[in-house]
# Entry
Amino acid sequence: MFAVAELPAGGGPEITLAFAFPVDERASAKSLTLDNLGNVFVLFISPPDFTWQVYEVPARGGGQVVLPPTFSSDGGYMAADAADDLFVGNAPQIEEIPAGASSAVTISAFPTPKHSYAPNVAVNPAGDVFSVLPSGDLVKLHRSQPPQLSFPETAVGTTIPLSISIQNTGNASLSLSSITTSGPFATMWSTSSDCTNGSSLPPGRDATSASPSSRNRKP
# Structure
């Protein structure tokens, strides 16, 4: 039988949390992590299909919650960022379960390994994600730094739009006080975008994609 116990920081006897894991003897718990709110997450593999499932015990109390996404590859470790988004190593990719979401999003895919492995996952306070590949290489996903836009060759007098989005990976509302552009091309922002000056993003939320357009002009 599986159980998760809490050792109080102030001392005293351990507290067994109210987890109700599958009772099949072939099932096993593979990873455990906590978010900033104190919610506990356990990555579990269960027969008969041996799929990977994440169980959550809310810090506010009550019974466990089985998160909707299931993983059929080699599940590994988990980590949570400041916005309580959960990251799961699901070889050969890393999956993100945004806080309050009912599905997982693949944030990075690596070359498929020759042998099974459980990918490590770690997140720093800025929201950057780290993992170790089977080759031993440490990779870093720069989620705290904006990606570069690379516009294709553009004919004179035409525009090429590129879609971008903004996600708040912190634990407080993000205010977009100023959006500016630079570079050799004139850039225009879509009027339908909510990525505008003065808009605000709650923790863990995404802004609707903006569409800057590069206009090629004659020298």
Q: What stands out?
A: The chain has no helices and 18 strands.
